[in-house]
Recover the amino acids of this structure.
DNA sequence: CACGAGACCTGTTCGC
DNA sequence: TGCGAACAGGTCTCGT
């Protein structure tokens, strides 16, 4: 579910407070409680309970789709996977269905991890690099240049759609924003990454940034029952628009499966080409 | 190395 | 109405 823009929205809400949650920084932890044990990826439950008590929340940040909650000594990492969510509320509130873990604060509030599908995970680690170390570059960082992107695309011959979903290649994209970005850049999801020209790579990076930024601006996308605050779902060009007219040319949007993920594209705007003339000049 | 299948889970929607 | 199948924003592991 949540992809980079949804995670960024959750992070901003936790950092500053919102209608859906109190702000997190500054609160001191009294204790923790796991309602679904497997939510905790690391360390073991007894070590987790012992280590987290007494630590104070310093800051809330995002790396890829991870929520990074920096504490006095350790770092609490949360990955929402498909259906996770976080909220901060008073401890007197009723727990909700699918609440999986609680962090209780000394001031009578608590952080709650809710996750219907139980795929989400939390880590408490001294060094966040042990969990985040394998991630690829952040697409919105200015330091990640079109030239570097093109070089990375040339380094493999994988299909572009699964490649963009690979978090070790580029961090933060998920199924929605990948389909939207490939449409905006007019690139077919089957295209071999090393057949993209420098110009196409630059266009693709520009499209990735544009869809991510619009997603963040609209507080993410809420389909199904999660992330009801977002609005981006009303502005999809291709995602979940199978059979509906392309916003550019009117051709019905097509749904195929690529890398075992539902994939939406316009067969007229996004034409598959296996060879690329600019590639010959290498 | 690249890809596909299966696993992990629950809830909603679709088709008969 | 009921019921099973298909599908869902993610990632990991295993086999070819």
């Amino acid at each position: 579910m949540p992809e980079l823009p949804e995670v960024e929205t959750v992070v901003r809400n936790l950092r500053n407070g919102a209608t859906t949650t109190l702000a997190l920084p500054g609160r001191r932890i009294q204790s923790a409680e796991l309602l679904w044990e497997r939510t905790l990826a690391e360390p073991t439950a007894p070590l987790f309970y012992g280590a987290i008590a007494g630590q104070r929340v310093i800051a809330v940040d995002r790396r890829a789709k991870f929520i990074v909650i920096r504490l006095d000594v350790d770092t609490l990492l949360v990955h929402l996977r498909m259906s996770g969510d976080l909220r901060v509320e008073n401890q007197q509130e009723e727990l909700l269905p699918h609440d999986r873990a609680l962090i209780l604060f000394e001031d009578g509030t608590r952080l709650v991890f809710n996750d219907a599908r139980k795929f989400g995970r939390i880590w408490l680690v001294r060094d966040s690099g042990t969990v985040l170390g394998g991630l690829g570059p952040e697409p919105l960082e200015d330091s990640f240049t079109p030239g570097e992107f093109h070089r990375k695309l040339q380094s493999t011959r994988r299909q572009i759609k699964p490649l963009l979903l690979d978090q070790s290649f580029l961090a933060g994209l998920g199924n929605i924003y990948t389909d939207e970005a490939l449409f905006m850049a007019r690139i077919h999801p089957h295209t071999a990454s090393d057949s993209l020209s420098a110009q196409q790579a630059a266009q693709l990076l520009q499209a990735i940034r544009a869809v991510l930024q619009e997603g963040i601006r609209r507080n993410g996308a809420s389909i199904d029952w999660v992330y009801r605050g977002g609005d981006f779902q009303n502005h999809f060009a291709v995602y979940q628009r199978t059979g509906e007219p392309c916003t550019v040319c009117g051709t019905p949007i097509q749904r195929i499966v690529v890398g075992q993920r539902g994939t939406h594209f316009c067969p007229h705007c996004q034409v598959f080409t296996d060879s690329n003339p600019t590639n010959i000049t290498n």
